[in-house]
Design brief:
The protein is 74% helix and 0% strand. By secondary structure, the chain is mainly alpha-helical. The termini are far apart.
């Protein structure tokens, strides 16, 4: 309703009674910006940055409040924060979005060196959003390939440096970064060269095998990707994340049985992994499993998984009713509003969308091409069976079909015999003469 002044007055009046102090300060900053009280808004956003120096929206609010007219003034905002919070990553990362040319090269050089020296595995993820600009990609590639060549020969970032040499781990993280860099650019053979060199030097680092599996996945070799992700999982069998990733890669490669066995390491004992995952509403597994069954042509199993996902959403809808009275009784009104908004968009969730899309595709295909006995035979997963085993399974199916056909014919003959007997009995009753009247 654009009642910014009323909103600010309300939040200030009831500030002491509101327990969530962070949201109070955030609302104040937003309202002061909307009212044009920029100096006050700047002070509020500085307080918020002091509280959490990694929150990007706080920097956006500070920029709007200070309204820097030049690039130098804009950079100065972040330099001041860096001096106050020397360990913060965001005030060093955000300027890379808007600077260019020689200044970008200089800032990137400083940023990369610090992170490679201390060993920062998610460095590529931090910089990935820059890859939409060709100029920034070429500068990153030039800098990092230069580091790799120099570190290999003299253990410095450049051949002209003096002082303390970089540890061997710096070269490892540089190669790890380059593997992800060339994977992002679609140069998979080059990416594999770098990751293989890194694995040769440090064959016990899980992250290296994880990236190697991702490279194979992006190159389209799903079987090899699943193999290397399983290798990564074997290095730390207690890691649930890498276990889930390994199962997911197996499902992408249509290795359903192996994926179930992988998940069984973290499911409840005494029940099958499939049942336990369904009970826990593990929808990422069910949607991937449905897609794998669909690719294999096992439409019945695929539809079963899709309907399991649908049931989860029905349960979520039913469970919401318990919260209506609870939220009113406990006066958790902000959470209640979030719940009401969730109800409107519940079935926009990615898992529901994936399951619904698979189910629709299968139903349309079955409508256009109904399954015959030959189709059912083709549903056998020949990929995971030897020629001898496949022959046995198909022979067993044919015997079962023949037996079912004979049983149906026997039942049909029995029904006809019963009908004839009933008709004969009825005819006899109608023909039988009625006896003489006795007086």
């Amino acid at each position: 309703a654009d009642l910014f002044q009323e909103s600010l007055e309300h939040i200030e009046t009831y500030e002491k009674q509101i327990c969530d102090k962070l949201v109070v300060v955030e609302i104040k900053g937003e309202m002061l910006l909307n009212l044009g009280r920029l100096d006050e808004a700047a002070n509020v956003y500085r307080q918020l940055i002091d509280r959490n120096a990694e929150n990007w929206p706080y920097y956006e609010g500070l920029e709007k409040a200070l309204q820097p007219s030049t690039l130098e003034k804009r950079l100065q905002i972040y330099e001041e924060v860096c001096k106050k919070h020397p360990r913060a990553l965001s005030p060093r990362r955000i300027p890379l979005n808007f600077i260019a040319g020689e200044k970008l090269r200089e800032t990137l050089d400083k940023f990369l060196r610090v992170n490679f020296s201390k060993g920062c595995p998610p460095l590529f993820t931090v910089l990935k959003s820059l890859y939409s600009k060709a100029e920034k990609v070429s500068i990153i590639e030039e800098l990092v390939t230069g580091y790799e060549a120099s570190l290999k020969t003299c253990s410095f970032f450049t051949p002209y440096e003096n002082g303390e040499k970089e540890p061997p781990t710096t070269l490892l993280w540089v190669r790890y970064f380059l593997a992800q860099h060339f994977d992002k650019l679609g140069q998979w053979s080059l990416a594999l060269e770098y990751i293989n060199t890194a694995i040769e030097s440090t064959p016990t680092l899980i992250e290296l095998f994880y990236i190697k599996a991702k490279i194979y996945k992006h190159a389209g070799n799903l079987k090899e990707a699943a193999k290397w992700m399983e290798e990564a999982q074997s290095l730390d069998t207690a890691d649930r994340f890498i276990n889930s990733k390994s199962a997911k890669y197996m499902l992408r490669a249509n290795m359903i049985k192996e994926a179930e066995e992988m998940c069984s390491k973290f499911t409840r004992e005494g029940t099958s992994a499939m049942e336990n995952l369904n009970e826990m509403q593990c929808m990422w597994f069910q949607t991937e499993c449905a897609a794998a069954y669909q690719r294999l042509g096992k439409y019945g199993d695929a539809l079963k998984k899709c309907h399991e996902v649908e049931r989860h959403f029905f349960e979520i809808t039913d469970d919401q009713f318990d919260f209506h009275t609870y939220c009113m009784r406990k006066m958790t009104l902000r959470a209640y509003v979030d719940l009401l908004r969730l109800e409107d968009i519940l079935r926009r969730h990615a898992f529901y969308f994936k399951a619904a899309t698979s189910a629709i595709e299968i139903y349309l295909k079955l409508h256009d091409n109904p399954l015959t006995n030959e189709n059912k035979e083709q549903e056998v997963n020949s990929e995971n069976l030897s020629a001898k085993e496949l022959k046995k399974v198909l022979s067993k199916q044919r015997r079962a079909q023949k037996k079912a056909k004979l049983e149906e014919e026997r039942k049909h003959a029995e029904r006809e015999r019963q009908q004839k007997n009933q008709k004969k009995k009825k005819d006899e009753e109608e023909e039988e003469p009625s006896g003489p009247d006795r007086k």
